[in-house]
Amino acid sequence: MAGALWSGRFQKATDAAVWAMNSSLNFDKRLYAHDVAGSIAHATMLAQIGILTPTELEAITGGLAGIKADIDSGALVIGGAAEDIHMFVEAELTKRIGDPGKKLHTARSRNDQVATDLKLWMRDELGEIDSLIRELVAVFIEVAKQHVDTVMPGYTHLQRAQPITLAHHLMAYVHMFMRDLQRLGEAGKRLNYSPLGAAALATTTYPVDRELTAKLLGFDGVATNSLDAVSDRDYVMEIAADLAIFMVHLSRCSEEIILWASAEYGFIELDDAYATGSSIMPQKKNPDVAELTRGKTGRVIGDAMTLLTMMKNLPLAYNKDVQEDKEAIFDAVDTVKLCIPAFAGMVVTMQVNAGEMRRAAGGGFTNATDLADYLVIKGVPFRQAHEITGKLVHYCVGQGIHLEELGLEMLREHCELIEDDVYDYLDIANCVARRNVVGGPAKEAVLRDIAEVEKKL
Ligand code: ARG
């Protein structure tokens, strides 16, 4: 602690309690590879403008590459007295190559350094999350394709409403995931501007070439205003919010899977490899993957909230508060990456009880709207058709029968325009098949939708 790289103006060592609070090494160590990449670009630029000699540059880049390789292999363990990963790498470099190492931080601050590191890390993680969500979409589509004829009830207010298919239901989630991909992709583009060269807050007196470091690191350009460049955490807040929205989608699906797997629904049975048991009740098979996904959604929402709250009162430019961004965004990213593979496995292996879904779709008068529509075709105004159908439903409820079990006589008592073709109209599978407009549950409509999504992927 006495050896902090900024200790020159201090007469006392940092108190241990302050050190414990101030140090971020324990969590920002995962930025080491990106820190090394940022430093190599910075050093390359410094050599370009004549601040480092070619020999010094060679020593620095060689030293940094060695540090990265040793951390990768486990030969070098991150730890010890460094305050954060930036200090750790710099101290280790100087230990290895001597004086040239001490020149690396010329024209740079940890403020532009950490912002650069975090953006580079975020970019890599966005790539991984993008692939994971694409795999999840592929799984949902695979299962949907098997169930374009699997009729189930569609719900509103969790009351049976109109018949749909399982494919149609799963594709609803696919569309949510497609928007998640789009949101995260856009966030990735927005963040891709380099903070390097902004230094502490006001750039530097050295003629740094910010475009060069930006280019070397694969940024699309420079984050121009230096105050903004070092204090901007929009990308962290935005991506955390995008991940929270994604988790809300997974969580809604989790809720349904939990319900569907219950004996009360009996729509699905989870594979043994994707369920867990009880320590006391031998018969139990619990949907823990869905429950944990639903539960962990709270964490990710919390991470997004942490970041927004952390930022909301910060005066320009850098404040140490923002060091807190890392644990929150790391947690959000880790949680999402933990949930997706388990969730995808659960969905692709679940057994669908098509008979039970079909039975449920046949109850609850899910064909009542279709009867009203039938009457409209026969010339009855819709409001009146609604009333007539409602009365018939009421009668059926009393009798404990379905609409299609009503005799023609009884139907015609309520509306004499009803003919024998009504039974065809009331058939649940036909109710689905007739909804063949864009976005509807009819087999052709769902297959068209699947094809379009597959094209976009
Ligand atoms: N570890 C800090 C962070 O994560 C970077 C260091 C900035 N420190 C400073 N004294 N300006 O934000």
Describe the structure.
The protein is built from 20 helices and 6 strands. With 457 residues, the protein is mainly alpha-helical. Helix 7 runs parallel beside helix 13 (325-349) and helix 8 (166-191) packs antiparallel against helix 11. Arginine binds at residues 24, 28, 84, 110-111, 114, 318, 322-323.
Radius of gyration, CA atoms, in whole angstroms: 31 Å
Report the strand count. 6
Ranges where pLDDT stays below 50 over 5 or more residues in a row are none
CATH class of the largest domain: Mainly Alpha
- Helicity, in percent? 55-70%
Task: Give a short overview.
Belongs to the lyase 1 family. Argininosuccinate lyase subfamily. This protein is mainly alpha-helical and 457 residues long. It has three domains: 91 residues, Fumarase C, Chain B, domain 1 (Orthogonal Bundle), CATH 1.10.275.10; 249 residues, Up-down Bundle (Fumarase C, Chain A, domain 2); 65 residues, Orthogonal Bundle (Ribonucleotide Reductase Protein R1, domain 1).
